[in-house]
Specification:
Largest sheet: 3 strands, mixed
Order of helices and strands: HEEHEH
Distance between the termini: 35 Å
Structural class: alpha+beta
Number of strands: 3
Number of helices: 3
CATH class: Alpha Beta
CATH topology: GMP Synthetase, Chain A, domain 3
Strand content: 15-25%
Oligomer: single chain
CATH architecture: 2-Layer Sandwich
Strand order of the largest sheet: 1-2-3
Radius of gyration: 14 Å
């Protein structure tokens, strides 16, 4: 995926990240998604796909991935209503490895 680099894309990505985090806290009823953290959003060049980076206190699991994929439609429609977007990007959930890489890459 070729990433967008414009200010508009960065602003939209931040808005999507904040709104998704809010929706996860206030509206999602699935107990598997309660301790999830949205750590970032990356948009592609035409802003049709949003990669949502996430972490969870218990680590990565297939059950968590299934829960996110199951909630994808609800999250997308909620984004469209709350942000009043004409077109809401497709949401793709990607495990954020940044913290893991920081811990394991440190040299003694």
């Amino acid at each position: 995926m070729r990433r967008a680099t414009s200010r508009r894309a960065a602003k939209l990505a931040d808005m999507i990240m904040q709104e998704l985090a809010k929706i996860m806290v206030e509206d999602i009823q699935d107990p598997r998604l309660q301790l999830i953290t949205i750590s970032g959003v990356r948009l592609n060049r035409d802003m049709s796909v949003a990669e949502v980076l996430y972490t969870h206190i218990h680590g990565q699991s297939d059950e968590l991935t299934q829960a996110l994929n199951h909630a994808r439609g609800f999250l997308r429609s909620s984004l469209g209503q709350n942000l009043r977007l004409r077109f809401v990007p497709e949401l793709r959930f990607v495990w954020d490895t940044f913290l893991e890489e920081m811990v394991y890459d440190q040299k003694p």
